[in-house]
Amino acid sequence: MNETLQTDANYSDVDGELKRLDHGETWTPEVTLRVTIIVVLMVLTLVGNVIVIVRLTNCRRCRRHGHGQSSTTSSSSRVTVFIYNLAIGDLAVCCFTMTTEILFVVFEKAWLLGAVACRLLLYIQV
Q1: Looking at the domain assignment, is residue 50 inside a domain?
Q2: H or E segment at 14?
């Protein structure tokens, strides 16, 4: 029984040498639940932040053409820029951090994308 669970293997580059890592069953109920929750959160994050960006962009266009409020104050402009930045930051977290979390969960904490991608993603995430 133990042999059948450890037939899946991948290789990890640690200190310049490839080591074989034996893994158990990848899609356990816990992993499936965690990946499902992360994917649902990613979809909600993508949809919600895209709606916020589109809505703010459309409101800005309406105000420029005189269809909305008659005057814009500098504080509402600052708030709009702040909300844009929050939405873009949320999208970055969704695309980079949540995606790597899914990879970590599925491949049992083994990094498969190489040293360059590891450093690049760590730089982007911070």
Answers
A1: yes
A2: strand 9-14
